[in-house]
């Protein structure tokens, strides 16, 4: 059984989670992983599919937000210009973005032979974090076949979390990071909807993590405070079946940062913190022939509910990525402790200074 916030009595919300408390609670959304672990190779690919059909032909409305831009992504310029996503979203390590993008292009060409000939080219979407401390990133071990394997493995139901897929070699707040997910169930106009988050966590300084109950767990042996500058990254993927337009999704994407801030993150100079949000409710037909189309959208007076759900599910997804990950031995013997082990033993916390504030660990 995967360890989650519920396993440790850590309440992150007032809103109720979905059935599996994952991004796949949004109907139609699929997630798959391909994990590489061999010697100093500790990396992989995670795929998020807004639906299982032909995304190039049936696009989803989307938007992104760059919280801090020290990152290497593919596709966000067109996502924010046209307001749609037309391929699955792949997550991987920094030097494997190109391989994953090429795989998405090949997958789209196989399903749509007219791409680049009688219709437009395809805009792939890939996000990354740097797993170099635990993975031999220079080996560029991720191939197009690995990306295609993650796509082929995509399924609904509970999301596999922790040190898996793109999260295999990631570090978060000095602990072992990885893939995490959470969701919130929403009732709007008498109907049930969901908002779910999936995160790739590789950010936060040791000692900065704040749990919902106020504790500040610290990984033994790590450097704290200014001795270890913030230079990590996080990718936040947000999915919902609430009907939203591009502008509203951009507003939702920005609230992913609120969930990160609740955990103690301040998005350092060297961090790449990016949020991508999409709605499955208003598919866009690639071959639309009507001059004017009608779409439902949420009333702006109700959007606070989406903002709250985003902050809560992002915060909990990050914690789930930490709690699901076991103690990890990576490249060259580099080791990361498990937050779950730390909490089970009684977490070590940072001492307070004379002002009652947490100071650097001595």
From TrEMBL:
Q: Which Pfam families match?
A: Peptidase_S58 (PF03576)
Output the lineage of the source organism. Bacteria, Pseudomonadati, Pseudomonadota, Alphaproteobacteria, Rhodobacterales
Q: To which protein family does this belong?
A: Belongs to the peptidase S58 family.
Q: Which InterPro entries does this chain map to?
A: ArgJ-like_dom_sf (IPR016117), Peptidase_S58_DmpA (IPR005321)
Q: Which domain of life is it from?
A: Bacteria
Which named protein is this?
Answer: P1 family peptidase
What species was this sequence derived from? Paracoccus benzoatiresistens
